[in-house]
Amino acid sequence: MKRIAITIFTIGTIAAVGTACKKPKDNSTQNMITGTWKLTIEADDVNGNGVMDASEQMADTTNYLTVYNAGGTGHTIANGVHEDGFTWAVDGATLKLTDTALTTLTINLHIDNISASKMTLSNTFGGSTSWEVFEKQ
């Protein structure tokens, strides 16, 4: 009986030490963005109310992917064709994308919502807002 108690104690101690040594998950915005994202919905604020209404949403059918590499670089893929390269950085709730060919072109997108599986970005230009909704692949 003593041997069983010692075995259970040893297994419990090993499990506790193993759990305590695990690296904490990095839930930073930058870490969540890193990866490949598929564009699923595009929307334009047609009625000007600042809300992405269901009637303004269009499902994306182009198979458009955006790849954000951990080192701050990335590229887009449309229908299987590798397209534009860019660098990216997160500044608060802003995702800054700079075209690698045209380094003077930087786009600032607002990160409206992000989770491990879904990201919504918006851009306001000339008083009109547009949104893009992505799902992580």
Can you walk me through this structure?
The structure is a single chain. With 137 residues, this protein is α+β, with helices and mostly antiparallel strands. The chain has a single domain, classed as Lipocalin, CATH 2.40.128.280. It has 2 helices and 9 strands, in the order ααβββββββββ. It has an 8-stranded antiparallel barrel. β7 (106-114) and β8 form a beta hairpin. The radius of gyration is 22 Å and the shape is globular. The model is unreliable at 1-20 (pLDDT under 50).
Task: Write down the overall geometry.
Answer: globular
Count of DSSP-assigned helices = 2
Largest sheet: 8 strands, antiparallel, barrel
Helix/strand/pairing class, anyone? alpha+beta
Across the major sheet, the strand order is 1-3-4-5-6-7-8-9
CATH topology: Lipocalin
* Annotated CATH architecture: Beta Barrel
Number of strands: 9
Distance between the termini: 51 Å
Quick recap of the structure?
This protein is an alpha+beta fold. The protein has helices spanning 2-20, 29-33, and strands at 35-44, 57-59, 64-68, 73-78, 81-91, 94-99, 106-114, 118-125, 128-136.
